[in-house]
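FAQ: What does the model actually see?

It sees only this:
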Amino acid sequence: MGIPEPGFRVYKGIIDEDRCDAIIETFENSTIIKSRAGARHLLTIPEINSLANNINLLEIASKELSSDAIPFRATLFAKTSSANWLTIWHQDTALPLKYHFDSAEWGPWSRKFGVLYAHAPTSALSRIVALRIHLDTSDSENGPLRVLPNTHALGVLTDDQVSEIATVHRAEECLVPKGGVLSMSPLLIHSSSKIKSDLPRRVIHIEYVNSLKLDDGCELSVN
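And it is asked to produce this:
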């Protein structure tokens, strides 16, 4: 199981633009804890939980995983001219977990906003797909996601390995229209640059898995 080559895919016209605007308004009026980069642990918000279980998104996630898909984590990335940053090349390897357990394959462990996290092995991460719902059009000027195609097949890498691969591998920009979705493996090496225009780039990043129970004693936390 796992996402096939090249490790990502762009789907257009998945979510209504009016719904995108409604979601933006939800965040603007919300009392959720926000950081400079956005907000975490959003599945408790009814509008985001409903979005995560949208039939179109579930179909995409199930197709990528070749299995029924369950949403377990939602994050807002809100990059604007006043909240602007760059992200270096990396993989997404930390997962939220219900319980601590002893395993040489998992770790280091941490706690963020009251949620337990551990860096996961390839066997767990290959069972996950992330869908990035674009609330704004993502173009070359507003800090789009950049990816290194097919690198998800390399498994979990060290920071040094990621940096070395990024110096020799061809990068691709993921340009996605408003209401479009980018699917990607958490193991895909990716980054993003700063915004160069006044256009915001707001994305809801929802992760799906084929089962919340990854192994004996290992269960994902839904947040």
